[in-house]
Amino acid sequence: MVKTSLDNFCVKSGVLCPRCEEKLRKGQITDLDLQVVRILSELEKDFPILQDVSFERAVESGEVLAILVNKQDVGKVLSSGGKIVRALGEKIRRRIKILGYSGDSRQLIEDLFSPISILTINTVWLPDETTETKVILHGRRPRHMPVDFELARRLAKEIGGMTIRVEFEAA
After folding, report:
1. DSSP 8-state code for residue 76
2. H or E element that contains 37
3. What is the number of other CB atoms lying within 10 angstroms of the CB of residue 108?
4. 54 three-class SS
5. How many CA atoms lie within 13 A of 143 on its CB side?
6. DSSP code of 141?
7. How confident is the model over 63-115, as pLDDT tens digits?
8. Higher pLDDT residue, 30 or 142?
9. What's the whole-model pTM score?
10. E-strand spans in 12-161?
């Protein structure tokens, strides 16, 4: 079964035990997390590789649902020619983005902007004592972008609490 902080019985039955109910009440898990874990466990029948995947959390941002799994498990979820992601998207009825969760903000930014190569990532301290993360991408802004920058900004804010500024620099 998909590895999660919830008990297997609670995921399969849909009825939470007192321990899992407490996690939900404290905000350690959300209803969205519970819904995604249930769908992942249903998909295990068709995709047995999901049994080895560690689910961390799910984050909604507009029309996209970001599913955070253990960094080592991203390849497993993206394998099968994208069939797992397509099946998830059909069940959830949203666009799905799979991200590796490691607690490292730099790794999160690299995952959000993949496949674009990042030249550098800097922290900018603003006069009002807040910070922004400046992501400098290599080259000029292409006409067709493989990454939705607005989506990357929203997900970085939701997942890592980061405000991102994107710039391009020709080498």
Report:
1. H
2. helix 31-43
3. 22
4. strand
5. 0
6. P
7. 888 999 988 888 888 887 788 889 888 888 888 888 888 777 888 888 888 88
8. 30
9. 0.82
10. 55-61, 64-70, 95-101, 118-125, 131-138
Work out the mean pLDDT of the chain and round it to a whole number: 86
| Side chain identity, residue 18 | P
CA 9 remoteness from chain centre: 25
105-169 folds as GMP Synthetase; Chain A, domain 3 (3.30.300)
Q: Find tokens 């802004």 and name the residue.
A: 141
d(CA 144, CA 126): 31
Q: What is the DSSP letter of 62?
A: T
Residue whose structure tokens are 């067709």? 144
For residue 32, what is the enclosing H or E element? helix 31-43
- 8-101, superfamily in CATH? K homology (KH) domain (3.30.300.20)
- Numbers of helices and strands, H then E, in the chain: 7, 6
Alpha-carbon Rg for the chain, nearest whole angstrom, is 18
Three-state DSSP at 170 gives coil
Return the sign of the alpha-carbon dihedral for residues 60, 152, 124, 57.
Answer: positive
159 and 68 Cβ atoms separated by less than 8 Å: yes
Residue 93 — φ and ψ, nearest 5°?
Answer: 65, 45
What pLDDT was estimated at residue 171? 61
